[in-house]
Amino acid sequence: MNAEVAVVKTAAETALAQAFAQARDRLPGDDAIAARRDAAFDVFAKQGLPHRRIEEWKYTDLRALMREAKPLASPPDAAAKARAKNAGRMLGDLDARRLVFVDGAFVAELSDLRDLEAGLAVTSLAQALAAGDPVLTARLGKLAPASDVAVALNTALMGDGAVIHIAAGATIERPLHLLSVVSDKPAATFTRSLIIIDHGARVMLIESHEGPSGSDYQVNAALELFAGDGVHVDHVKVIGEGARALHVSTLAAAIGAHARFNTFSFTAGGAVVRNQLFLKFDGEGTLAAIRGATLLRASQHADTTLIADHIARDCQSREMFKSVLDDDAHGVFQGRIIVRRHAQKTDAKMMTQALLLSERAEADNKPELEIFADDVQCGHGATAGALDEDLKFYLMTRGIPAAEAEAMLVQAFLGEAIDGIEHAGLREALIENVAAWLGARG
Amino acid sequence: MNLLEIKDLRVEIDGKEILKGLDLTVKPGEVHAIMGPNGSGKSTLAYVLAGKEDYRPTAGEVRFNGRDLFEMEPDERAATGLFLAFQYPLEIPGVATMTFLRTALNAQRKKRGQEELSTPDFIKKVRNTAGKLGIDQEMLRRAVNVGFSGGEKKRNEILQMALLEPRLAVLDETDSGLDIDALKIVADGVNRLRAPDRSFVVITHYQRLLNYIVPDVVHVLSRGRIVRTGGKELAMELEARGYAQYQEEVPA
Fold it and tell me: At what angle do helices B119-132 and B150-164 cross, to 10 degrees?
């Protein structure tokens, strides 16, 4: 007898299935891509939205948090594009080459594709899929884990994104800024980007996400990053979504030998955020700094899930994630360092710290080490606590008002992570964002 | 007018009465020394004046510059002219010393309705004062008190005092942990600030500091009360005889 458990689909799951059925034939790509979309959707159809009994999603029960699935966003109209011109203010007047996505679609007229530096090639995912770009076909899905439901949905429904190729030895002076902005329609966007950085190249990549505060839109963004030997890559993701947005994003990267790789996640917006980093250190002798700062208030929920997979030997990784949680906010950090059998002399240290500004705020930290090599240095630490009242008192006795004293201590707390950003303009822009966030505290 | 007037002050910490009816009056320009054995309530007095949480008065009153001290938050007390030099200055990782000093100074000026100091004026003022206290520029570039020696931390307290120019400075065992050279530098810093409208309450266990900061009035604090008041010669007497005579009223 076959005792099959009947799975009751949630409204969101049903709506996603309908959206896929309706969109399937008009999504970009040839039959091979369509087959991949089907296979990916199948992963989702079998598993459904992840919930708290799935270990990787233990603290972020997407089935409960995602009550409904929004319809797929339609291409932005002139009004939406006009509004998007004001986007990107979170990063001040940062000098970067902007690639602008409005409602998940690449908008060439808002982007800066003039005078591309030698060795830099940029196209949109929709174009590359339509053209049957063989490089894209070969690489797409190679890094993003197919079994991850967020990635599976992204693969099934990806509409557009950036496809960037940086040639060997090229130094791209201006940062590349993938700016995603959502107009006021409460819709869902699925963007997928692919970035290939050949050996010895140097580049700074910025991803930023923003949208209207009154709209409960949904974003699923995935980036696959192939970084060759000897590259120097700085990657910064700024999640500044509107207060009611649901944001799921994934960075899946493989980094070659003797490279420098820095990634920073800044999370301040969104009602529900899941930020996934899946990093593979494929080549020996690479140095990586993996950091993040999260600022949450009201009933915001943000989950940073990191897997740093050391495959090759002699790599060093430093993971530091800090969160500041006010009101009823819920911060989650899940960090796993894997050291494979041949990854001898790996030096990996992970630290996560939560600062709770309210007694109702909650921080969940789940650090994990999986070590299969025998000659490594690995460690992790986690702390969660309130502001140090003695320090606050000390500042106040010098005449600094309570709110300002708290702000100074919060900035100092986050500074340890943010100060590691090498790009001064970006670092200062993020410090400004922290100051603005603190200024908005009651 | 008296600058500081403490009447029958009683303070409890965790349900235990530490100050048991303390009286003290400080006039403008005076230097008072408060001496006493360990556990007599010296640091409690310092903290309750500065406004530390959990150091709650249960009775009595304190008037500072004509105002009810307990109606003011610690930052208001500071802006009104009260300064506490901590016995154990705190390290604040991530907060640059210069940022800290400027924020404090300008917060006080703002509260008093004065204009904020310009950056060049501020830097000049700090460098000038730091030089006199033997604080090198390198220290000013570090985070507040981080990596400072005990003596450096105390000198940094005096630097803050000199910059903030309080009406009343309470020095809580500023001499503890200082060698004789550092002690002289600290005392020199205090003496330079002595002025007809500025007062000091120097809390200390030992008479040594009072060789350099000569007080107008010396009080003996024991078991939460001022039990004796005299001139600077009282400090010498305490040094010679110790505090034993003031502790005799120990209940069996």
Answer: 130
> Is the pLDDT at B251 greater than 50, yes or no?
no
* Residue A44: CB atoms within 10 Å: 23
Residue B116 near residue B103 (C-beta atoms within 8 A): no
Taking residue B88's Cβ as centre, other Cβ atoms within 10 Å add up to 16
- Quick: pLDDT tens for A5-44: 556 799 999 999 999 999 999 999 999 999 999 999 999 9
Least Cα separation, residue B79 to chain A (angstroms): 5
Closest residue in A to B80 (Cα) is A399
Torsion angle, alpha carbons of B64, B67, B68, B73, to 10: -80
Domains in chain A: boundaries = 11-283, 388-442
Give contacts of B53 with chain A, Cβ < 8 Å: 389, 393
| A399, A401, A408: residue with CB nearest B164 | A399
From the candidates B69, B76, B87, B103, which should be mutated to test the interface with A, based on the most A CB atoms within 10 A?
B103
pTM: 0.92
Q: Which pLDDT tens digit goes with each residue over B48-80?
A: 999 999 898 999 999 999 999 999 999 999 999
Using a CB-CB cut-off of 8 Å, the residues of chain B touching A415 are 94
The 3-state DSSP class for residue B55 equals: coil
CA distance A351 to A97: 33
Domain boundaries, chain B: 4-247
Residue numbers in A near B90 (CB within 8 A): 390-391, 394
Q: Is the CB of residue B166 less than 8 Å away from at least one CB of chain A? A: no
Mutate which of A383, A392, A395, A404 to test chain B, going by most B C-beta atoms within 10 A? A395
Q: Is A131 left (phi over 0), alpha (psi -120 to 50) or beta?
A: alpha
Best probe of the B interface among A355, A396, A419, A431, by most B CBs < 10 A, is: A396
Q: pLDDT value at position B250? A: 46
What contacts A7, CB < 8 A, 6 or more positions away? A48
Measured between beta carbons, which residues in chain A are less than 8 angstroms from residue B92? 391, 394-395, 409, 412
Chain B positions in Cβ-Cβ contact with residue A409 (cut-off 8 Å): 92, 95
Q: Is A391 on the interface with B (CB under 8 A)?
A: yes
Which strand (E) or helix (H) includes residue B142? none
Q: A100, A111 in Cβ contact below 8 A? A: yes
Distance (Å, whole) CA A158 – CA A266: 24
In CATH, what number does B4-247 get? 3.40.50.300
As given in the structure block, the two tokens for residue A420 are 């590691």
Closest CA to A237 of A180, A186, A170: A180
In what helix (H) or strand (E) does residue A330 lie, and over which residues does it extend?
Answer: strand A330-339
The DSSP result for A92-161, as a single string, is TT---EEEEEETTEE-GGGS--TTPPTTEEEEEHHHHHHTT-HHHHHHTTSSS-TT-HHHHHHHHH--B-
Q: What's the rounded mean pLDDT across residues B119-140? A: 90
Q: Is B35 on the interface with A (CB under 8 A)?
A: no
Question: How many of the other CB atoms lie within 10 Å of CB of B26?
Answer: 21
